[in-house]
């Protein structure tokens, strides 16, 4: 069952362009992860001030495997601050 994980990133005023540039530079970095189905970087327009990183995975195990081996980021090098993850299952409507 496909799962969706949404990481919320708070970005200080004036840093949005830099955040988008960093994601552009790394947009293929997760392509090879087993079960990875894609991601989108969502820029807030209304009702939310944080950027959302929306990712889709073939199943929970695929996401966990990637997350467990992911290199921890040094917060002193990021412009954003992670503010928690939202987790969903995609409902099969058939
Ligand atoms: C799959 C596509 C993804 C890509 C290409 C990606 C790329 C990036 C990049 C470029 C940054 C640095 C942002 C900055 O400099 O401010 C970042 C930060 C971060 N990402 Fe991702 N990311 C992805 C998915 C995820 C997911 C699913 C998670 C959740 C487990 C995650 C967790 C984080 C965390 C914790 C940070 C650090 C933010 C902080 O400073 O606290 N990322 N990511």
UniProtKB/TrEMBL annotation:
Keywords: Monooxygenase, Oxidoreductase. The keyword Oxidoreductase applies. InterPro entries: ABM_dom, Dimeric_a/b-barrel, Heme-degrading_MO. It comes from the Bacteria. One of its GO terms (molecular function) is monooxygenase activity. Residues 3-91 form the ABM domain. The keyword Oxidoreductase applies. This is Antibiotic biosynthesis monooxygenase. It comes from Brachybacterium epidermidis.
